[in-house]
Amino acid sequence: MASGDDDDPIIQEIDVYLARSLVEKLYLFQYPVRPASMSYDNVTHLAARIKPKQQKVELEVAMDTMSPNYCRSKGEQIALNVDGTSSEDSNVYSTKMMDKQTFSAIQATTNTSRYAAAVFHKGELHLTPLQGILQMRPSFTYLDKADTKHREREAANEAGDSSQDEAEDDVKQVTVRFSRPESEQARQRRIQSYEFLQKKQAEEPWVHLHYHGIKDSRSEHERQYLYCQAMDTTENTELVKTPSEYLSMLMPPLAEEKVVKPMGPSNVLSMAQLRMLPLGEQVKTLMKNVKVMPFANLMGLLASGTDSTAVLRCIQQVALLVQGNWVVKSDVLYPKNTFSSHSGVPAEVLCRGRDFVMWRFTLERTLMRKEVAAIIKLPPEDVKDFLEQMSAPRLNRGWEFLLPTDHDFVKKHPDVAQRQHMLWLGIQSKLEKVFNFSKDDFVPKKDAQMEPVHVSGDQRLKSARENARENHATMQRELDARRLKASRYTGSSNESGALVQVKQEPMSDSEEPMDTSGPLTNGSINGYPNSTSPVSDPHNGHSHSFTPELQDFVRSTFRKHYVLCLSEVKRLFNLHLASLPTGHSVYGHVTDRMLQDTILQSQCKQILVPFPPQSNATAEEQKVFGLWESGETFDKHRQVLFEIFMKNYRVRRNVIQARLTQELGDAVTKTDVDRLLKECCMSLGGMWYLKGTVPS
């Protein structure tokens, strides 16, 4: 330093003073959306308020409505949208015109210890530390109020429309629940939630301020506090520091943070580092990265000579057996107190949804994403994650399990397979309670874990073609026999002397006459039946391959749901087919016409209910069927209800109750009406709709 003194002489010495009068009150306001040449110093400030703890400031500034740059029509329109036509004291714009603008503060930095306001006067530098640096930006909260007004008007209009119907005051049952004591984990989650932070911010009251212009006498008086008020006291000591120490105080060296080098990328495993871990951690790490793996592959990734019995013991702690392969457990992928990266759903809910997907794969090879999402009711991104972890999309077949069934493992370790099978039965019972689905919707295959079946696409296509040829030959023989029998009864001729012929039903899907988009399912997936019982179709003269099993399915479905549209019946039928073992279907090739005729022959009737004018229902969704006769006394209640809905697509409860009392007498109770509405109707906006006419 001594050698550099001659090259860097001292030009001037300045005394520096620390002013403390405004230490906790001095803020720096910045206006980032306004150029420095256009300040707000000469603009009228109407109001100011602050929340000191949050350092949140709001300023109301008047707008020059007489300026040639001001659009009066837009200003009046904004005021009308915000306040409406009423004149109230709470209106935002009292002049019926947008005549003011609000600025709201955003903290530019949370640490202001390195910032100060400086005043240089008569060779002295006075510094006052800043309490906060705030960026003032325009606030558009008036748009939120306009949106609220708009929704209120829409709600009022809807209420006005519905008031045309007869109003009623229904007595509603209220369930009182007592909250359980809050755990520490739940309390921490609640404190860190966005709603809690918003509530805490709203609890701090506003402190209203008076604004004084830059040339106001009060401002001049306050600016005097920027100078140190106690310059002659002993507190102002000289700075006795060497130049190096003073420089270090001004610019302290940055502390080097010691960063622990990660083991590797999240999707890459170092086998050398992996094998340094305990066996249980090795298995857990591998399963978390791979997610689905045969046992033989797992043994190949571990060090040679590893005991398979010990590996089996470890794998059962972190994975479950699905079709002879090991799939990592849900709670390993989604630990406790974590949330979905897509939707923020808690880990407990994610685990239940993923367990349902895994359980379904223990029963069948393929799943439909929409059906899974409809049951577990999770965001689409999470459902897609579940499926991508253990399956792959297949064209027109949904999502197929990633690996073929490992029969060798099941045969080699029957005790492990049986133990896993019993574990899945316990998981199934829990899932049934959580998601409230019926066992009829998913019929488990017999010993699905012990005797899984996997058939390739080529094998299915070959089997379907062979079955089609056999069915064609069988049907041809039956048709020949019917021709011979018919010729005996009619003398081998009709009135014109021509032979009587019976039209053969086409075998291909493209030639099949259909009511809507096509057949319900592809018969080649589950195979064709060995024998069929043709039933004549009065609509088109064709004979259908109709089985009593189809009628049993329709009857059981309508005794459970009572009212269904054609598309929903098709969906349930496809779901039922998917639960059957591959190649064991007894339904054959079922078309829309066959299914519709079967419904009408199963004590059901089509309900010609009118649909709302704005409804986007398809032709299949507009075909609504209801159970007309089931042998119960309650059939009369349903028949009266169906007749009501044939005249109007939405009805109030009191209208239904009055009509039931009129038709069936005073014996109709509130319990009967509740049961009827629960079985056949849905409530929406205070009105009742027939099931199938509005989205579930």
Automatic annotation (TrEMBL):
Is Nucleus among the key words of this record? no
Q: What domain of life?
A: Eukaryota
Q: Which GO terms describe its cellular component?
A: RNA polymerase III complex
What does the UniProt keyword field contain?
Coiled coil
InterPro entries per record: RNA_pol_III_Rpc5 (IPR006886), RPC5_C (IPR045576)
Q: Name one GO biological process term.
A: tRNA transcription by RNA polymerase III
Query: Which stretches make up the DNA-directed RNA polymerase III subunit RPC5 C-terminal domain?
Result: 444-695
The UniProt entry's coiled-coil ranges are: 458-485
Cite the record's Polar residues compositional bias ranges.
518-535
Give the start-end ranges of region Disordered. 148-185, 486-544
Q: What is this protein called?
A: DNA-directed RNA polymerase III subunit RPC5 C-terminal domain-containing protein
Report the source organism.
Answer: Cirrhinus molitorella
Q: What is the lineage of its organism?
A: Eukaryota, Metazoa, Chordata, Craniata, Vertebrata
